[in-house]
Amino acid sequence: MERPSLEINLPDTHEEGKLYVVDSLNNLNKLNVCPDGSQHALDEEETTAGTGENVAGSNIRNQCLFFVTFILTLIISLALVSFVIFLIIQTRNKMDQISSRLISEKKNIEELKKMNNMILKHLNQSAIKE
């Protein structure tokens, strides 16, 4: 009778021993492969073994979100730069128009001054004759 009970208990301890050896080999492999700083991340990953897929999916979603945000930022920046360049070109065109008007007005003012001087000379001469 004692013998069958030993046979039942023996495979259980053998299975537990196998699990212990595999667990020890995994820990040893982690120590050899991973640097000291990343061992903490592996320990945390072991504690959250059930949510490992969620963490990986979350990282992928975060990366996708980052890239989408980055691309949107680049597109918005490009649009703003294009708008600023458009405004600079429009301002330059308006300034060219204004400067050409000022030059023409300056010529008109000089002609008016000449005419004013001629009128004053004529009036002075006619006043002297009287």
Structure in words:
The protein has helices at residues 2-33, 36-47, 52-129. The protein is mainly α. It is rod-shaped, with a radius of gyration of 46 Å. Mean pLDDT is 78; it is low at 1-10. Pfam families: DUF4577. It comes from Tauraco erythrolophus (Red-crested turaco). InterPro entries: DUF4577. Keywords: Membrane, Transmembrane, Transmembrane helix.
Entry keywords:
130 residues; mainly alpha; Leucine-rich single-pass membrane protein 1; transmembrane helix
Q: How many whole angstroms does the radius of gyration measure?
A: 46 Å
How much is the average pLDDT? 78
Strand content: under 5%
Low-confidence stretches at least 5 residues in length (pLDDT < 50)?
1-10
- Figure out the total of helices: 3
Shape, principal axes of CA atoms: rod-shaped
Largest sheet, in brief, is: none
Helicity range: over 70%
The quaternary state of the protein chains shown equals single chain
From the N-terminal CA to the C-terminal CA, the straight-line distance is: 161 Å
Count of strand segments: 0
Order of helices and strands: HHH
Structural class: mainly alpha
Summarize this structure briefly.
The protein has 130 residues and is mostly helical. The protein contains three helices and no strands.
Topology readout:
Layout (H helix, E strand, L loop, with lengths): L1 H32 L2 H12 L4 H78 L1
